[in-house]
């Protein structure tokens, strides 16, 4: 498969995904800064806070994006080979799971795993 440079839609989709994942973390901080701005007092301090917030959010992302692209380009062939091996392994696991369900051995395996797990884990996973 030929490699092509990322286009507008690729970058937009990545940005949309990042926003969805990042919003629970950034929401309270950005909300507090917006609340300060909405009060209309000390707008110079608010502008400085927003500027520093923007720089603090953008710089790590720019650094990560630049470094990760170069690293991914260098490791591309290794990751492709690893991906093929993992695809085969996951396929084998799915076939084995399907056979266990079809033959009823999944219930016996579940019983063994529940008996081997600590009580706190069993309580946590069966609480609801």
Automatic annotation (TrEMBL):
<keyword id="KW-1133">Transmembrane helix</keyword>
<feature type="transmembrane region" description="Helical">
    <location>
        <begin position="88"/>
        <end position="105"/>
    </location>
</feature>
<feature type="transmembrane region" description="Helical">
    <location>
        <begin position="47"/>
        <end position="67"/>
    </location>
</feature>
<dbReference type="GO" id="GO:0016020">
    <property type="term" value="C:membrane"/>
</dbReference>
<feature type="domain" description="Cytochrome C biogenesis protein transmembrane">
    <location>
        <begin position="13"/>
        <end position="98"/>
    </location>
</feature>
<keyword id="KW-0472">Membrane</keyword>
<dbReference type="Pfam" id="PF02683">
    <property type="entry name" value="DsbD_TM"/>
</dbReference>
<keyword id="KW-0812">Transmembrane</keyword>
<keyword id="KW-0201">Cytochrome c-type biogenesis</keyword>
<dbReference type="InterPro" id="IPR003834">
    <property type="entry name" value="Cyt_c_assmbl_TM_dom"/>
</dbReference>
<dbReference type="GO" id="GO:0017004">
    <property type="term" value="P:cytochrome complex assembly"/>
</dbReference>
<protein>
    <submittedName>
        <fullName>Cytochrome C biogenesis protein transmembrane region</fullName>
    </submittedName>
</protein>
């Amino acid at each position: 498969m030929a490699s092509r440079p990322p286009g507008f839609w690729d970058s937009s989709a990545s940005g949309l995904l990042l926003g969805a994942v990042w919003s629970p973390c950034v929401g309270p901080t950005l909300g507090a800064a917006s609340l300060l701005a909405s009060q209309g007092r000390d707008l110079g301090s608010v502008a400085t806070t927003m500027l520093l917030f923007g720089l603090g959010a953008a710089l790590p992302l720019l650094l990560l994006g630049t470094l990760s692209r170069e690293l991914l380009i260098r490791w591309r062939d290794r990751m492709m080979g690893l991906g093929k091996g993992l695809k085969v392994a996951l396929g084998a696991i799915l076939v084995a799971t399907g056979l266990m369900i079809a033959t009823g051995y999944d219930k016996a395996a579940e019983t063994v795993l529940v008996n081997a797990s600590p009580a706190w884990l069993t309580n946590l996973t069966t609480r609801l």
